[in-house]
Amino acid sequence: MQPDALLAALAHIVPPDRLLTRPGALAPYECDGLTTFRGRPRAVVLVESQDEVIETVRLCHHAGVPFMARGSGTSLSGGSVPVDDGIVIALNRLNRILRLDVASRVVVVEPGVINLDVTVAAAAHGLYYAPDPSSQSICTIGGNVAFNSGGAHCFRHGMTANHVLGLKVVLPDGQIAMLGGDGIEAVGPDLAGLFVGSEGLFGVALEITLRLMPRPESYRTLLAGYQSLQAAGDAVAQIVAAGLLPGAMEIMDRLAIEAAEAAVDAGYPPGVAAILLVELEGDAAEVDAEFARLITLIAQSGATSTRVASDAADRARIWKGRKCAFSAVGRISPDFIVQDGVVPRTRLGEALATIEQLASAHGLRVANVFHAGDGNLHPLILFDGREAGAFERAEALAADILRLCIRLGGSITGEHGVGLEKRAYLSEMYAAEDVAFMHRLHEAIDSKRIANRGKMLGGGAMPTAHGLHPLERSGAISRV
Amino acid sequence: MTLTPANVDDIQEIVRSHAAIEISAGQTKSPTPRRDAVALNLAALRGITEYSADECVLTAYAGTTLHEIAAALQAHGQYLPFDPPLVDAGATIGGTVASAASGSGRYRYGGVRDFLIGARVVDGAGRLIRTGGKVVKNAAGFLLHHALVGSAGRFGVITEVTLKVFPLPEAWGTLRVECGNVANAITLARIVEARRFDLACLDFDGQGTMWIRIAGRASALRTRGEQLRAAVAPRDADWLEGDHDAAIWTAAQDWGSGHDPCAKVVGNASSWPQLCETFAHMRLMAAGAFAICRMGDLTPTPAQLAAAGFAAPGLNGIIVTGPDAGTRLGPVPNNPFEERVRRVLDPQDRFRAAPHTS
């Protein structure tokens, strides 16, 4: 099929106002939250029904033209950068909540539903959706499924894969498959679990059955200040060793605290080297008993200050500081790279000390924000893109940090995915035969390699790294 | 012929040199090898290879018994929260993963699928593949280990698994309530769930006896137990602790045997009253998300199954113990995704003859 023939065929699927082909209309779809990579799609199809997705996928398969399904484009790994001259299937309008089954604690949604909207819909019934990436107010469930998104509660509650019970998907050749079931237990292999995190390479999720959790009766959120990152990290180890199972344990270092305070008045203690945020959840009587234990542990851990959230509003304020940390760093540095790696929790201290040494060797500053409960680091590498060579040095430091994670027995990504950004590191984390298997599986699912081509496993024409957005480079815009 | 390799190299060699292979280990679910296949028994491939209590991560060979794992964990105040069944019968961790066997405790923190974070598997070409890792959060690469949960030996030989583990609660207690019949029990389950207690387990049986378990700090247990009692009032309820509590949940791990096979049935509230007519003895777990049913005299012929409601959507099942273990109850639709995954892992159909192909 000739290019024009594909566009003509697409025009039979959606009306003209939902088929974008003019350069100005395509521009917003050229990159995602990473901004390092860009691609210029041939067209963007604004779908409004599952059938439109299926028809578009079938046409692309027939024409051998790559397609990429996209939600809000918040990927931090270049996962939603289109292939040059490919088709973008924009799923934002496919955003209905199809069924909310309170008794079974499940909800069935379309892929364009915003993560937080699931919890909003379930809240009246005392339920919530647990995975809470920092971008939860804009990112979509479809993207969460593709990249196995995480959040702050993964040690206790797991990642997206643990909350997706069933999927209706369209495979890259247009076939439909039903994976998993509609309850917490299923019969047969957990194929929904395999589809989650496949970064769009296995096709497009059309309907997603999610597990909802009962909202705990009580939360207790504690903020402790420390004179060193190491002391905060040690406190986490002591909490786990004492048999407590907090819903979340987060650490931020001095730079990250400074940034968060500048952006939102989170009320973090001034002058400390690190803060540790611990949140207990459960029945009120249980949380009270756990809190008594926690406060003793924190006192013994050398905390210089402690503060307990006084009410729900105060709790929200503490979390806001943490969740805005990425963008807040824009206030203290013209540019930055958000990195995402995992180390075994017991090696957090070692990892942080090494990152500090690496940063200083590269002449760069790093702000650290991390999910301490599960060893998921988010070093924010600060640099000034207007300075010659600074972006390259920042990338070199990011590479060193990823290799550190591999060396310590961790992962190159805890929740952002491999995308375009980390293709080169997958084969450093896994053995050649493990990666070879992934290629064989990819080939079997998508023999033409048209679904989100180039992500995770490479292949096809690579989108080029452009460094900063031209407007960012010139200082006209910044990420705040 | 039964082969009992004690190392992974031997398993790879066995796979390469046999056309049809049937995998077992503790033989608690499927007691006797069947059909014209080589029986590959993993009981000798055993041992915990890595366990860091501080990390809350344990790695073990597939043939390691749950008993051994539970003992090692308990020595460090930890446990597998999903209550895998058949511990006392000698079930292994590999079989638990392959059969997706989660018990009553899966209600609170999730099942096998939520605790498996990595695995090694020998595929049908004899290749050893590692999937996932040893950290609880990992979004790198295709997460094949998820698909091994419930794969029933059809995707390859699981040789090693890595699990997330949790701290063992300090104290446990169970409230036992007599509801009279299953419909009343379902009603009560909804009432209790609406209160959003942080429950460890919520089981009931076909006769309407309900067991609600809570776990946590000893100092809070009785207070929570009283709140639970108030929530089920005016129904009579008995509060059980210590050995009396433990005995209930040990009994729930008995999923039958070769002489007394069981099926796992997945359904919803509307399924259970009718199923009570079919299965005289059934225990519904996780507030009725699934049931472990004694097969009794039921033979899984299509007609019998259809009569029991298994042709209807939303009701699905699989025989989990006994000579017919692996037989699906109800229709198994063609799944193009599953078939492609299977063909990649087992291009020569070495595992296809395994008993779990219905």
Please describe the topology of this protein:
The complex is a heterodimer of chains A (480) and B (358).
Chain A: H1 3-13, E1 19-20, H2 23-26, E2 37-38, E3 43-46, H3 50-63, E4 67-70, E5 87-90, E6 97-101, E7 106-109, H4 115-123, E8 127-128, H5 141-147, H6 154-157, E9 164-170, E10 176-180, H7 191-195, E11 204-211, E12 213-214, E13 218-226, H8 229-241, E14 248-253, H9 254-263, E15 274-282, H10 284-300, E16 305-308, H11 312-323, H12 325-328, E17 335-338, E18 341-342, H13 348-362, E19 365-371, E20 376-383, H14 390-407, H15 423-429, H16 432-445, E21 464-465, H17 470-473
Parallel strand pairs in A: 3-5, 4-5
Antiparallel strand pairs in A: 1-3, 2-21, 6-7, 7-11, 8-12, 9-10, 9-11, 13-15, 13-16, 14-15, 14-19, 17-20, 18-20, 19-20
Helix pairs in contact in A: 1-3, 8-13, 13-14
Chain B: E1 2-3, H1 8-17, E2 21-24, E3 38-41, E4 48-52, E5 57-61, H2 66-74, E6 78-79, H3 93-98, H4 106-109, H5 112-115, E7 116-122, E8 128-132, H6 144-148, E9 157-164, E10 166-167, E11 171-178, H7 182-194, E12 201-205, E13 209-216, H8 218-232, E14 237-241, H9 242-251, E15 262-266, H10 272-278, E16 282-285, E17 290-294, H11 302-307, E18 316-319, E19 328-329, H12 336-345
Parallel strand pairs in B: 1-3, 2-3
Antiparallel strand pairs in B: 4-5, 5-9, 6-10, 7-8, 7-9, 11-13, 11-14, 12-13, 12-16, 15-17, 15-18, 16-17, 18-19
